[in-house]
Amino acid sequence: MHRTAVKKVVLENVLDANDALAQANREKFDQSGTYVINMMSSPGAGKTALLERALERLRGKLRLGVLEGDVQTTLDADRLARFHIPLVQVNTDPGFGGECHLDANMVRSGLAELPLEDIDILVIENVGNLVCPAEFRVGENVRVMVYSITEGEEKPLKYPLMFRSADLVLVNKIDLLEYLDFDLEQFLGYLKAVNPAAPHILTSARTGEGVEEFCSWLERRTAYPPASG
Amino acid sequence: MHELSIAESIVRVACNHADERRVTRVHVKLGHLRQVVPSALAFSFGLVAEGTGVEGAELEMEEVPAAGICRRCGEESQLEGFPLVCRTCGGFDLEIIRGEELLVEFLELEEA
User: Fold this and answer.
1) Which H/E stretch holds residue A168?
2) Could you tell me the CATH number of the domain that includes residue A204?
3) Chain B (65-94) residues lying within 8 Å, Cβ to Cβ, of chain A
4) What is the ipTM of this complex?
5) How confident is the model at residue A87 (pLDDT cuts 50, 70, 90)?
6) What residues in chain A have their Cβ under 8 A from chain B's Cβ atoms?
7) Pairs across A and B, CB distance < 8 A
8) How many domains is chain B partitioned into structurally?
9) Going by fewer Cβ within 10 Å, which terminus of chain B is more open, N or C?
């Protein structure tokens, strides 16, 4: 078939534009000396609850800020408002019914409302989802994944991209261990198999177990130069 | 539905390279590990392309199977699905060498 078309080689990565914006965000964070954590999990794993526990302990010690990403509602932001910390909510619903993740541009749009100079650690609470957020860098220094034991042992094998990209895994709802047929050793084995480098902390936002250790981990972030990533 | 964001990016890349000509075909490479659903991407692409220079263009998707090199035994494996596992020794710690592509490889443009 004859075509009156010409071929033009492009070879451009689809996410280059996002990555460039992520890099610009990162430069902004580095300038203000803000360490940035991208917090990810499936919906309902306990990101907000763990943040609340951590904020209770870190009040007065560390200047935290939070950027909340949600498809809709300000419910999570409302829960954190009592801490009187810099807080901005980014809803990812631009009219199409809502994105399932935050991307670098959405984060950038929220930054204007945050006094980065006054924030030691900025926690970006991503949209609950085990697939999409892993694809989009937003300028973070590290990725913390919250996993809850009600999700089943096999999740690291089913969602390896998310688990592989995590620098720390919080194994949450550990207070439910005695009530569930959950094999913790098997889960930890799978986790180590897909991401041998990532440490984990057993946590319960309900009882407070592991929250101190998570807070120490957060405090150590500000003591070291930013990690690569 | 990260397909919608990805479709938006593809359309943006295509428009940037179209030299103000109409785009008739966009060829992308999709690595299997990207967990992109081709039918969802094609649908999103059609929506996002409307009203741009890419409207009506065919989105041609070349899927790239995943492959990795085992960090334990050093062997290369094709990876058919999750879990990602070395076919030689059963190890899970693999360095991914293919399957993460998300690339606009070429465009077809209408002759000026």
Assistant:
1) strand A168-172
2) 3.40.50.300
3) 82-84, 91-93
4) 0.82
5) very high
6) 3-18, 96, 99-101, 103, 131-132, 135-136, 157-161, 190, 193-194, 196
7) 100
8) 1
9) C
